[in-house]
Design a protein that fits this description.
heterodimer, A: seven-stranded mixed sheet, four-stranded antiparallel sheet
């Protein structure tokens, strides 16, 4: 079992550009959540996808968008990058939602640097 | 709104000494509680979790945490730490309806020989 895999591992982008990050969930998992972890901080919830729809969203602007595919993999897109978007982006997968979901497995993350 | 407070940003300790990493949460609903560990340049790994039942939960590598509802705490303890325990530890809470995780700011455990 490969666990949660994210690509790429590192990325450098210029301010104003757009970026797409990818996540493949752990085998058997159907729910994907994305988190942003700024340097020295705890992860912050961006949004969660289940059944190819955004199920819930954290306090992030519309520049952050996502998608979930029929095979449960997911993408995180960020438009009009700002320097403050530099962070480690973590993908977590789980089975089910709400009370059925009692454990999230995290990927290694994508380190995004905006210059 | 839920929140998590980790009272210590850094905890230095010598090898084989006991350690406690403190975590307090605020929530008006029943919650699940978690401790995650993050090694340098890595993602998060689940250390242990409290869902229901016994308030004392244990991990396979000697850590334990106790859910205290009256004090809204979920402190992490280990009676004897190893060099390899050096890492960042995050406490997190989720309510039972929305399974998004709310994290604390983390505690850096540094174990010295």
């Amino acid at each position: 079992d490969a666990g949660v895999t994210q690509s790429p591992t590192h990325l450098i982008k210029t301010r104003g550009q757009q970026v797409t990050l990818r996540c493949s969930p752990k085998s058997g998992h159907d729910t994907v959540s994305w988190y942003q972890q700024a340097l020295g901080q705890g992860p912050q919830f961006i949004f969660q996808y289940y059944e190819e729809e955004e199920r819930q969203r954290g306090n992030f602007p519309d520049r952050f968008s996502g998608h979930q595919f029929p095979n449960y993999s997911s993408e995180l897109n960020v438009n009009a990058l700002l320097l403050g978007d530099s962070a480690l982006y973590l993908c977590a997968s789980s089975l089910g939602t709400g009370e059925l979901n009692t454990e999230a497995f995290f990927g290694q993350g994508t380190r995004l640097t905006v210059v | 709104a839920q929140s998590v407070t980790q009272l210590d940003s850094q905890v230095p300790v010598f090898e084989e000494a006991p350690v406690e990493l403190r975590c307090n949460y605020s929530s008006s609903v029943s919650v699940y509680l978690f401790w995650y560990v993050q090694y340098p340049n890595q993602g998060l790994q689940l250390l242990l979790k409290y869902l229901s039942g016994s308030t004392l939960v244990e991990s396979i590598n000697g850590f334990e945490a106790e859910f205290n509802k009256s004090q809204t705490s979920f402190h992490l303890r280990k009676p004897s730490v190893h060099i390899s325990d050096t890492a960042e530890y995050f406490c997190a809470v989720s309510d039972r309806d929305t399974d998004k995780l709310i994290f604390g700011t983390g505690t850096r455990l540094q174990v010295f020989p």
